[in-house]
Write a structure and sequence with these properties.
- The protein has ten helices and 13 strands.
- With 326 residues, it is α+β, with helices and mostly antiparallel strands.
- Strands 1, 2, 3, 4, 5, 6, 7, 8, 9, 10, 11, 12 and 13 form a 13-stranded mixed beta sheet that branches.
- Helix 6 runs antiparallel to helix 7.
Length: 326
């Protein structure tokens, strides 16, 4: 018989952070968050502009679940919110998730939200069922893919650098660009990423970021690696593409793939492949086991590059949505 408990829900407090991170990591062990990253995310979230509600579920004095409902600053809509709920595996099916969900839904209705969005891995069937039973529906899917970097066969891609060199394209790093021209490098990175973000498939379109916001989320983030931020430069010195890796602080056995993109007018000339090969060499140089990346299932050009390189698909992540009365 299922053991039901009376769930106590309250707002998150700064003293809860270590328990919060521990609980979230117990639910998502392949995607660990560090306390440092969690603190940075909170400290750089502008609550004067954006809304954030964070609640915890308690069993005695222990935090056994949590939920976030927040605006997405980089894809902002005043009446749409990101929703993320977790309950420690050993405390599930006792009402904690329902208690957190119901409290969050009341807050969303009070704020006249028109929709909530969430992500859930298709292999985490309890999470998928939890949302679907409450009226959520699928809006898109992303393949997660992983590449083991040891023994990567660079010989298969020996012509990649020759191909871009023939078009006058070279590759450098953000770290090198900073040493040469700190202000110019920052401005060019900010402008390039701003353009590339527009073409990243997403449920919500990107909204502009100020350079101060960009600094907080990019170069100021604990996971940022300037030496693993590779940039393609054309013969006129214009930055036309990029691919970057980010540290996994809590589990240094892998690195995250950040953003890979090429300006529209430079696509189809091998730039993305040449950039991605640089990220593999960097990953080998720091002796990690693998790279983790995600791509919308409709993004065939990038999926084709990853497939050619040997990235292995994992269960997909499903983007879910709940429509609310406005």
């Amino acid at each position: 018989m299922t053991n039901k408990t009376v769930t106590r829900v309250r707002e998150f407090m700064p003293a809860d952070r270590e328990q919060w991170v521990s609980g979230a990591n117990a639910c998502y062990p392949d995607y660990p968050l560090s306390v440092e990253e969690s603190r940075h995310q909170d400290e750089t979230f502008d609550r004067a502009k954006y809304f954030l509600l964070r609640l915890v579920a308690l069993d005695g004095d222990d935090i056994v679940g949590g939920v976030d409902m927040r605006h997405q600053p980089g894809r902002f809509h005043p009446a749409r919110y990101w929703f993320d709920l977790w309950v420690r595996p050993e405390h599930r099916r006792r009402g904690h998730g329902t208690g957190l969900y119901d409290a969050t839904l009341r807050a969303a209705v009070e704020r006249r939200a028109i929709a909530l969005n969430a992500g859930v891995k298709e292999s985490m069937t309890d999470g998928v069922d939890f949302l679907r039973h409450r009226g959520w529906y699928e809006v898109k899917r992303d393949w997660e893919s992983r590449l083991a970097v040891a023994g990567f066969d660079f010989a298969k891609f020996a012509s990649a650098d020759e191909r871009i060199a023939a078009n006058g394209i070279t590759i450098t790093t953000y770290a090198d660009a900073l040493r040469r021209d700190p202000e110019g490098a920052e401005a060019m990175a900010y402008e390039l990423i701003g353009e590339l973000r527009v073409d990243v498939p997403s449920v919500l379109p990107p909204t502009p970021e100020t350079i101060e916001e960009w600094r907080r989320h990019w170069t100021g983030a604990p996971a940022f690696l300037p030496e693993a931020f590779f940039i393609a430069v054309d013969r006129d010195g214009r930055w036309i593409g990029m691919s970057n890796l980010e540290r996994s602080i809590e589990d240094p056995s892998f690195v995250w793939q950040g953003l890979t993109g090429v300006r529209r007018e430079a696509r189809g000339s091998g730039v993305a492949m040449a950039l991605k090969l640089r990220t593999v060499r960097y990953a080998q140089s720091i002796a990690v086991d693998h790279i983790k990346t995600w791509n919308d299932q409709r993004n065939r050009p990038m999926l084709s590059i990853n497939e050619a390189m040997g990235f292995v698909k994992q269960p997909a992540w499903i983007a879910m949505e709940l429509k609310l009365d406005s």
